[in-house]
Amino acid sequence: MATQPPQTLNPGVPLRREWGTAFAALRRLLANGDDTEQVFRIMRALNGDVTQRNYRKLLRVQGGGKLAYRRLELAQRLCDRSWIDSFAPGTLGAAYRDFLDSTGYSADGLVQVSMVEGGFQGIDVEHPYAWMGRRERDIHDIWHVLTGYKADEHLGELCLVAFSYAQTGGLGWGFIALGGAIKSIRTTGRFDCVKAICEGYRHGKRARWLHGEDYEALLEEPLETARRRLGIAEPARYRIAQARLEAAGIDAL
C-alpha cells in the first residue's frame, strides 16, 4: 500500500494548542538543554496564532509593509558568507560573524532543526504567515548578539526565550522560560538564574519591537548604536548569574 504524503498545514489557520505535546517536549528539553528540536515542538504546540498576529502588526509599523512586500528570506541571506564577511568592524554584522565563527552555528543549521515534525513551514510554502514564521526563526541568533545572551549556554538561551516571550507574545517561549527557571532553582539552590530570566523578560518588554526592523540595514549599524536605538539594556543580572554558575562549576541547568 502506498504511503500517504504528510498533510501540509495551512499557514492561515492558527495551530491548536497541544499541552500534552508541550509538556512531553519540555521534559526532554530540561533533561537535555542542547536538544533544540524540542524547542520547535513546543513552539508548534503552544504558539497558536502568534505568527499571524505578529505579521499583522508588522503591516502596521513604519516600514513594515515594505518588508512584508519584499519577503526577503533571511536564512538565504545569512548563509551568504561573502555578505557576512563584508561587515565593518564594530557593526552588528561583524559581531554576528564572530558569533558564527565562535559557536559553529549557522542559519542553515537552524533551518534544518526547525523542520522537525513540520514545526516551521518550508521555503516552498508561499504564504505571508509562513514567511513570517521563517523570519521569526531566522533572527533568533541575531537577537543573541543584540541582547548579549550567549547561545552556547543554557542560561543565555533561557534569558533570550524570556526576552522573546515579551517581544512576540508566543506562549511557547514563556513556557520554556518558566520551566527553565524552576529547574534552575533545583539545580543551584539559588534564585540568581530566575532573576536573570525575569530581567530578560523586562528587557524584551522595554525594547523596541525587533520584528519591525530591516535586518539588512540593522546588521550594518554599529552594535552599541543599535542597542541604544532599540532600547536594549545591559544584562546585569545575567552577568551576575553567569559568574556564580562558573564559580560553582555548574555548566548546565
UniProtKB/TrEMBL annotation:
<protein>
    <submittedName>
        <fullName>Ubiquinone biosynthesis protein</fullName>
    </submittedName>
</protein>
<keyword id="KW-0830">Ubiquinone</keyword>
<dbReference type="Pfam" id="PF05019">
    <property type="entry name" value="Coq4"/>
</dbReference>
<dbReference type="GO" id="GO:0006744">
    <property type="term" value="P:ubiquinone biosynthetic process"/>
</dbReference>
<dbReference type="InterPro" id="IPR007715">
    <property type="entry name" value="Coq4"/>
</dbReference>
